[in-house]
Write a sequence for this structure.
């Protein structure tokens, strides 16, 4: 696809980013003066970004398929020697899809936060951070080169850091925030190296230059860059082996978990891989690595999600698993890119609904997150329950809810790639049905197991309305996007598309999937006839492992943290004793030598005279010897 | 003219002076010994001036005398002050300027 | 125009002399006179920056030259190179900020303090502008004196020891360099039949044997590697930073240590291009060690100021790496890095200084949970930390990326290892922030007062510049462009071409 210089309304692409950025700036700098209106300002700016994005989307639709991509060069960012980077924004079919998702879900969650954060004294700051996040995320998806993407990439990381650690005086929140940032930096390490390798290879790292360059590049290059990008994607999207931060990230306020750690930011890894389609198309080995990472995360996330008692952590495990689906789909190549994005969008809706529902439940139960102390909420929180159920039906893939379509296509693509990948994905779908049913039963359907003094009640309108809006989205968006293959046709010019060619018919596959899902649901219903309000200790090894995040943190600690601490301690001692010690040793030697020599300064004039005479005689003597 | 005898005399006087500085404690005597050394040097200078038929040596001798005179002025003043404060002219007494 | 430059060079010295006089006879406070002369210097520097011709590829502009010691061919010769101009601007920006910030720290003897800071700034300016090796050397040594007194008189409890350590390291480096300078000019005298200290002449018309070049290179390089501390010559910096006032540390690490890296670009590369090229892999290796070693030690520090010092050692590793990569991007990135690092060091020390001043301890363990009592300070501190860990959008990011890319073009393995530094940077900075500002409140947290608006004022320009240069580094990059090209030409180096050429390359 050829990108065109932006014209008309598309020259204002930068405004999409600038609006929420302005909000963040105003709120964070003039926090005190704007205390009252900060939330409304944030909502206004984020929603105007959505409106602008929507108008652009409508404009884009009126144009022929091949002419929907625009590049607007805002200004020259870095120019030095052969390095020439513009602050350029690229608005095409892929980015506009993200722009709409981010600004729409983002605005909904802004509104939800009005109610959720009502009593927080720092809520102005919270909205400032949310706006900052929206701006950075928009920059990420609108950048026309990898370096600018990196700015957005770390920008969302910063917003995520600030928001996870929003309740900073909680030790666990501060630690979780730092951990998220550091683990993300490991991914950024990969992204930095990928960008540098691109520059080394092509002398540029704009999307268009890399796409053009990949055509005559060699395999090793595609593999190297592909693996580095995969590392970056794994860091941001909490995929194996960099998944550990996501579960801890649930320390943040729930709207944050919904927006950043479910709907948008964590899916940036998928965006990165799909955006780099030309690189992954050129290396099968890199694609296989992507599939493996996706598959491991898909299963591991589901297992973790099935064992957690904390509703948010269970949902986080689910997020990891669902992103595993997307990554897996992206690894399938042109068969899967479109469906990865499709699933990303549907997931954005239904996971946001469920997180907001979880937040609503927590709101009702004095911020309790333990599902063992929920139960019986279906009648008391009718809106929360209904919207949550919509999300539930969407995620497990019951037609006609959104998840059904996206998941079905991914399964089809997976089966057409290889039967094993297909079976893993199918197994993942079954696990999803199991743990989500478990969550619904524990939270809403089983008899109440509330703690003393808890009186559940429905949340205020500012919270339920966004949930309802998002639930409607979760219900219809799958059908709307796949009807008549509109989404495939929409994205095809950017990502390329091949029709999946599964060994079994689509109808048979649908039946098979629904059977597996039904099995998962039924097994969960059977398994959780009764729920103990306390945690049973006598459980299988797998459950124990899953409760500990499958020993991810343990591995990090024993392999990296502890040795790292030892190295640090050792080097501090080394620096003090060996390096500084050497120089101090030299200094001490000089000092002792001087102490020895100054003994000669006795203070007696006559001995000084003797030294002079002796010295003179010595010199004369030496001269004489030299003469002889 | 052979300068040998003058130079021998000069080195003898110089040695006496040096010995005096090193061995005698009394500041005045030490001072006189220094004068001896300076004058020994003067003798050597003047005699070599005579030998080479060159005035440089004699000019140098004048400089040495001037320096000697200056030295006497300052040196005696110092010795006097020390004698006043310590009631002694021994050069070994004021050995405070040491390590 | 050369007179403008002369005025720029002289103003800080005049200011320093005027302070005690004006205080005695006109009752002008040291603050007023000091700030006024610092601001005049800044304006003069800006005037020069505006009239600086960015398209001219001549080595220097605004040359001012008068004969000084004729017998040895020494002249008072100053001139503006792009790289020098950028560093002069950095000095000119930081001086008033430091003066302003330290006045609110209530310095004991304001007259002496202000004069010393101005002397320091003046010496630094002369070094950045010197085109005569002797002039360079004289002020390279002379600037030790104000710093020595700044640490020794105004520092913390162990100030005497720290000042002495600083001085001895500085003098040792200076001595080695002096030996090299003498040897170099002796060689020059025999070859040219006249004595000269002119840097341009020395770099262009002298031919050295490889052996001579190697030894002279080492003489200069060691002196500069002490100043811009590289492992293992770095241990004076943490001790000094621990004892010095925040303002002194800012000037010391932000400006004076840049003389080391500036010297590498302005003297070592042009004077000894062959030896530089030959030893570059070793120096890059040493720089990578500095990057990682400094970062790991920063993680292990208990004292905030020592931590800042070790982060600087890590950052200096990046700068040296960029310089010895011999690529345009690397050298330009290293120069931008100097500016970014100067600003972010100022940010860290000045914000941290407010904290340390109030509780009179710099031990990290003595703090905790300060966001609640001092949200403004926490915000500034976090921004300073983020700029130190090179967050995109801050000046540090562009420069760090340029340096790493420049190095990656020639030494992939070194660049990969150095890139690990970005992970370590996140650990040391955010862990520090976590321990000091977040988590449960310390029982003594309530003693901390938040920043007042007067204390915020000097910080605003620092942060504004950090963010501005992060999004728009062009002002710096265009200024140094020709200067960097000159350096590349002097070392006879050409940027590596991309491995796979792109046909019909589109505009990036």
């Amino acid at each position: 696809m050829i990108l065109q210089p932006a014209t008309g309304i598309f020259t204002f692409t930068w405004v999409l980013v600038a609006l929420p950025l302005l909000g963040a700036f105003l709120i964070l700098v003039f926090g005190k003066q704007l205390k009252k209106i900060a939330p409304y300002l944030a909502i206004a700016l984020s929603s105007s970004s959505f409106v602008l994005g929507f108008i652009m989307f409508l404009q884009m639709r009126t144009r022929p398929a091949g002419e929907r991509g625009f590049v607007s060069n805002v200004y020259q960012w870095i120019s030095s020697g052969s390095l020439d980077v513009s602050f350029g924004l690229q608005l095409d079919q892929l980015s506009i899809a993200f722009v709409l998702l981010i600004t729409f879900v983002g605005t909904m969650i802004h509104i939800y936060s009005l109610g959720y954060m009502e009593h927080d004294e720092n809520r102005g700051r919270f909205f400032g951070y949310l706006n900052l996040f929206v701006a950075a995320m928009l920059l990420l998806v609108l950048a026309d080169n990898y370096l600018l993407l990196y700015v957005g990439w770390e920008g969302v990381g910063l917003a995520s850091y600030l928001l996870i650690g929003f309740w900073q005086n909680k030790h666990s929140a501060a630690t979780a925030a730092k951990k998220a940032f550091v683990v993300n930096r490991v991914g950024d390490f990969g992204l930095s190296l990928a960008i540098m390798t691109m520059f080394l290879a092509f002398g540029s790292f704009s999307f268009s230059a890399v796409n053009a360059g990949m055509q005559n590049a060699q395999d090793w290059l595609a593999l190297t860059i592909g693996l580095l990008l995969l590392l970056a994607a794994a860091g941001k999207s909490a995929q194996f082996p960099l998944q550990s931060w996501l579960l801890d990230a649930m320390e943040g306020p729930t709207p944050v978990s919904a927006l950043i750690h479910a709907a948008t930011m964590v899916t940036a890894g998928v965006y990165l891989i799909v955006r780099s389609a030309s690189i992954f198309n050129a290396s099968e080995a890199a694609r296989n690595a992507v599939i493996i990472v996706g598959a491991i995360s898909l299963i591991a996330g589901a297992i973790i999600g099935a064992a957690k008692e904390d509703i948010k952590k269970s949902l986080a495990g689910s997020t990891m698993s669902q992103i595993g689906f997307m990554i897996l789909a992206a690894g399938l190549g042109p068969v899967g890119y479109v469906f990865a994005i499709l699933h990303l969008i549907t997931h954005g809706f239904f996971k946001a609904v469920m997180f907001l529902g979880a937040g609503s439940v927590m709101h009702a139960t004095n911020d309790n997150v333990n599902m063992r102390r929920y139960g019986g909420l279906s009648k008391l929180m009718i809106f929360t329950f209904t919207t949550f159920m919509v999300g539930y039906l969407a995620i497990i893939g019951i037609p006609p809810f959104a998840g059904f379509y996206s998941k079905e296509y991914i399964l089809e693509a997976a089966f057409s790639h290889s039967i094993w990948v297909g079976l893993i994905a199918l197994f993942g779908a079954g696990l999803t049905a199991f743990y989500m049913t478990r969550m619904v039963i524990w939270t809403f359907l089983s008899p109440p197991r509330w703690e003393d003094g808890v009186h559940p009640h429905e949340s205020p309108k500012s919270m339920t309305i966004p949930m309802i809006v998002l639930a409607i989205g979760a219900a219809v968006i799958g059908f709307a996007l796949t009807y008549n293959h509109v989404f495939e046709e929409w994205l095809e010019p950017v990502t390329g598309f091949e029709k999946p060619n599964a060994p079994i018919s689509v109808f048979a596959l649908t039946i098979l999937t629904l059977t597996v899902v039904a099995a998962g649901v039924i097994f969960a219903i059977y398994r959780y006839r009764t729920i103990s309000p306390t945690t049973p200790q006598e459980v299988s090894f797998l459950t124990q492992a899953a409760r500990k995040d499958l020993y991810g943190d343990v591995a990090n600690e024993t392999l990296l943290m502890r040795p790292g601490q030892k190295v640090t301690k050792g080097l501090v001692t080394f620096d003090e004793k060996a390096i500084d010690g050497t120089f101090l040793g030299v200094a001490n030697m000089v000092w002792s030598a001087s102490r020895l020599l100054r003994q000669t300064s006795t203070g007696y004039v006559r001995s000084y005279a003797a030294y002079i005479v002796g010295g003179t005689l010595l010199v004369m003597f030496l001269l004489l010897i030299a003469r002889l | 003219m052979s300068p040998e005898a003058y130079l021998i005399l000069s080195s003898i006087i110089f040695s006496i002076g040096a010995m005096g500085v090193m061995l005698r404690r009394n500041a005045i005597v030490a001072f006189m010994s220094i004068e001896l050394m300076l004058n020994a040097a003067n003798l050597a200078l003047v005699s070599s001036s005579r030998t080479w038929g060159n005035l440089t040596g004699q000019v140098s001798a004048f400089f040495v005398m001037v320096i000697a005179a200056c030295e006497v002025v300052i040196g005696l003043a110092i010795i006097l002050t020390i004698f006043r404060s310590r009631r002694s002219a021994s050069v070994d007494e004021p050995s405070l300027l040491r390590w | 125009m050369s007179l403008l430059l002369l005025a720029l060079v002289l103003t800080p010295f005049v200011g320093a002399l005027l302070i005690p006089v004006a205080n005695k006879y006109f009752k002008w406070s040291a603050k007023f006179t000091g700030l006024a002369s610092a601001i005049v210097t800044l304006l003069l520097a800006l005037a020069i920056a505006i009239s600086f011709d960015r398209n001219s590829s001549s080595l220097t502009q605004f040359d001012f030259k008068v004969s000084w010691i004729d017998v040895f061919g020494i002249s008072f010769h100053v001139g503006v190179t792009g790289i020098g101009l950028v560093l002069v601007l950095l000095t000119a920006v930081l001086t008033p900020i430091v003066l302003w910030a330290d006045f609110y720290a209530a310095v004991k003897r304001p007259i002496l303090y202000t004069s010393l800071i101005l002397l320091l700034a003046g010496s630094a300016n002369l070094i950045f502008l010197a085109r005569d090796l002797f002039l360079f050397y004289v002020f390279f040594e002379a600037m030790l004196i104000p710093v020595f007194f700044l640490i020794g008189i105004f520092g913390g409890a162990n100030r005497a020891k720290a000042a002495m350590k600083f001085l001895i390291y500085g003098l040792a480096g200076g001595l080695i360099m002096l030996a090299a300078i003498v040897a170099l000019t002796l060689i020059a005298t025999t070859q040219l039949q006249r004595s000269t200290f002119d840097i341009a002449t020395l770099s262009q018309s002298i031919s050295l044997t490889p052996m001579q070049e190697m030894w002279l290179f080492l003489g200069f390089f060691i002196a500069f590697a002490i100043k811009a501390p590289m492992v293992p010559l770095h241990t004076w910096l943490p001790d000094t930073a621990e004892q010095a006032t925040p303002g002194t540390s800012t000037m010391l690490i932000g400006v004076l240590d840049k003389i080391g890296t500036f010297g590498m670009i302005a003297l070592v590369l042009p004077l000894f291009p062959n030896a530089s090229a030959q030893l570059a892999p070793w120096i890059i290796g040493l720089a990578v060690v500095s990057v990682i070693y400094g970062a790991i030690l920063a993680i292990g520090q208990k004292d905030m100021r020592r931590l800042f010092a070790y982060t600087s050692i890590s950052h200096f590793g990046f700068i040296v790496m960029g310089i010895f990569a011999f690529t345009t991007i690397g050298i330009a990135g290293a120069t931008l890095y100097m500016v970014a690092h100067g600003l972010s060091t100022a940010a860290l020390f000045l914000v941290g200084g407010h904290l340390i001043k109030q509780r009179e301890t710099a031990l990290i363990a003595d703090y905790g949970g300060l966001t609640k009592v001092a949200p403004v300070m926490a915000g500034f501190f976090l921004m300073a930390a983020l700029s130190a860990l090179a967050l995109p959008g801050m000046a540090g990011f562009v420069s760090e990326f340029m340096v790493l890319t420049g190095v990656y073009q020639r030494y992939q393995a070194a660049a990969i290892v150095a890139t690990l530094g970005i992970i370590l940077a996140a650990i040391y900075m955010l862990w520090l922030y976590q321990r000091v500002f977040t988590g449960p409140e310390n029982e003594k947290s309530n003693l901390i007062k938040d920043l007042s608006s007067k204390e915020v004022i000097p910080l605003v320009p620092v942060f504004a510049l950090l963010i501005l240069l992060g999004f728009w580094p062009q002002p710096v990059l265009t200024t140094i462009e020709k200067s960097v090209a000159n350096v590349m030409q002097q070392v006879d180096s050409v940027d590596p071409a991309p491995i796979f050429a792109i046909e019909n390359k589109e505009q990036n």
Notes: Residues 254 and 359 of chain A are 5 Å apart (CA to CA). Chain A has 24 helices and three strands. Chain A has three domains: 1-282, 294-547, 556-627.
